[in-house]
Design a protein that fits this description.
Radius of gyration: 31 Å
Number of strands: 19
Helix content: 25-40%
Largest sheet: 6 strands, antiparallel
């Protein structure tokens, strides 16, 4: 059976193996650069790849079309430039020699990230992940075609900075979306005006998901950091990242909106922090908002506002800001130059002290030599004291260790580590996790840093990965029944109305994005295609699909309607 394929330019149906669209006349061959997928490539029998939009150190972004429903999508392909070899005519992506392990690990990170985001979208303020496809020895994330205007471009076309109240209203969906990511154990790490879109209603939505490797310097990927918006801890792999990393970036975006300029880059601030307060740059900024941004942009993570809801509430409420300010730790500025000068001074003093100490040691040695005979004679007279001294010493030297941090490590690595297994006994407990890859350790008891004696038991909780269920049979069922069946198994239905020539029963399921019997992760969004009434007239164009609720098929576009994502 031939796969249905739509032209990514005009969305007309393409004949099998066509290299020129018979509808718009566009030539498909040679549109994309070498190394990218050719225009017209079909993924998973559902998506046609269009033109390349952009390239970063992690992968390629393409335009695309969903063939069954007939709506536009965006496709992100995992293709790390530093780890990938040249791609052949078969489209198979191969790692460079010597980079096989890192390639596979970061590919898994990519798939896990987008599957996790898929489970929380459509959500307020986030670009929805519609599907994750594994093919060609790599992974593809299928995203909604978000539209809108990049916030950076929107701000450049604005003659004056944004009022604080307006900025709060515009960014509220983004704050809510990032909070939803954090609740699911995800960190965005790329929040900046370039990755925020201003929609037609003036409210913003966030795109630009990426793995930790892309957004951290020195990770092995060609990193993608945003000057002025990336947090200080992202400039080194030695620092940990968390919710406070995205909080820094959101504060920086708000600063850009109300001040008309971005904060100084974090890497520069660490050397010499001369970033001006928001109210100094733009006097119209309320004093309390300026104070909040100062708290949000602190360089040390433990002195910074820790959560996104805290930041948003403080920016929205003068009273809450006063309360928050009282509870925050005082800031301790970083002065690396002064610290270096102080270290040199200390080193000089230590050298003088060392000289004096050396003289005293020589004198002490002379005195000890004269007393050696006396000490030796006393030892001969008290031989019985030696066993008790050795016993006391043996008791004091009973082996004790600080518990290592096993969280995030593969359990197999610990099982095969003779040093660990000779010191501790491990009791493993399995647990499902949507955010921690299968086989990795979620938590441990006792926690890292506690003192334990050799041979004691450490309990570790090992991830089984996301919980999976069998895809039920829903083809032929009514829309309500299909939603009920999927919901009972922890799956989420996303319904599309499709044109019906009378071959299908109105309001019943024609097909679904997952085959019956397939094992699907709990929480996965299942695209369900519902047959429309044969009498329905098609009024919307493929370029501007009419968004409707699944139960109201009065005006579906050609092929289907896109789901409506609520941004409230």
């Amino acid at each position: 059976m031939e796969q249905k394929r739509l032209c990514p330019f005009c969305m007309g149906e393409l004949p099998p193996a066509a290299t020129v669209c018979p509808h718009c006349g566009k030539i498909l061959e040679g549109c994309n650069p070498a190394g990218c997928l050719p225009v017209g490539t079909v993924l998973a029998g559902r998506y046609t790849v269009g033109e390349m939009r952009s390239l970063d150190g992690e992968g390629v972004l393409y335009s695309g079309v969903e063939n069954l429903g007939g709506f536009r999508v965006t496709i992100k392909e995992y293709l790390p430039v530093t780890l990938s070899a040249e791609r052949g005519a078969d489209c198979i992506l191969r790692p460079k020699q010597g980079s096989e392990v890192l390639f596979k690990t970061t590919r898994m990170d990519f798939a896990d990230l987008y599957r996790a985001v898929q489970r929380i979208t459509p959500a307020s303020g986030l670009e929805a992940v519609l599907d994750v496809v594994e093919a060609n020895n790599t992974v593809y994330a299928v995203l909604e075609n978000l539209g809108g205007t990049p916030l950076e471009q929107w701000l450049e076309n604005r003659p004056a900075p944004v009022q604080a109240e307006e900025a709060c209203a515009m960014l509220r969906p983004v704050f809510e979306g990032v909070a939803a990511m954090h609740k699911a154990g995800l960190v965005h790490r790329g929040i900046c005006p370039e990755n925020i879109r201003v929609m037609s209603d003036g409210r913003c939505r966030l795109a630009g998901y990426a793995t930790v490797g892309l957004r951290t310097a020195g990770s092995g990927l060609h990193e993608q950091l945003y000057e002025g918006y990336s947090a200080p801890e992202q400039y080194t792999t030695a620092e940990f990242e968390g919710r406070y990393t995205d909080e820094y970036s959101l504060a920086a975006v708000f600063y850009r909106m109300v001040c008309g300029q971005a904060p100084m880059p974090a890497a520069q601030r660490v050397v010499s922090d001369s970033n001006p307060r928001a109210r100094t740059v733009e006097p119209a900024v309320p004093a309390y908002v300026s104070d909040v941004l100062q708290l949000g942009l602190r360089l040390k993570v433990m002195e910074r506002i820790q959560t996104v809801p805290q930041l948003y509430q403080a920016l929205s409420s003068k009273e809450y800001t006063a309360e928050l300010t009282r509870t925050m730790k005082p800031e301790t500025p970083m002065h690396p130059v002064r610290a270096e000068q102080s270290a040199q001074s200390r080193e000089h003093l230590l050298s003088l002290k060392g000289l004096l100490a050396g003289i005293l040691i020589l004198l002490s040695v002379l005195i000890l030599l004269t007393l050696w005979g006396i000490v030796s004679s006393k030892e001969e007279q008290t031989p019985s004291s030696e066993p008790s001294s050795e016993a006391a010493s043996s008791e004091e030297m009973k082996p004790q260790n600080l518990v290592p941090n096993f969280v995030g490590i593969d359990y197999e690595q610990i099982k095969n580590n003779r040093e660990y297994t000779s010191m501790y006994l491990f009791r493993a407990v399995l647990e499902y996790s949507d955010t921690v890859p299968s086989g990795q350790i979620i938590r441990q008891e006792p926690e890292a840093g506690e003192v334990m004696e050799n041979g004691e038991v450490i309990q570790i909780v090992v991830s089984q990965g996301p919980e999976k269920v069998e895809m039920p049979k829903i083809v032929g069922a009514s829309q309500d029944k299909a939603i009920e069946i999927l919901s009972s198994r922890g799956l989420v239905a996303s319904c599309f109305m499709v044109v019906n020539d009378g071959s299908y029963a109105t309001g019943c399921v024609v097909s679904a994005s997952e085959e019956e019997g397939a094992m699907v992760t709990v929480g996965t969004v299942i695209t369900v295609y519902i047959a429309a009434d044969p009498s329905v007239q098609i009024t919307a164009t493929p370029e501007e699909p009419a968004a409707t609720e699944p139960t109201t098929p009065e005006t579906p576009p050609e092929g289907s309607t896109e789901p409506e994502y609520d941004t409230d």
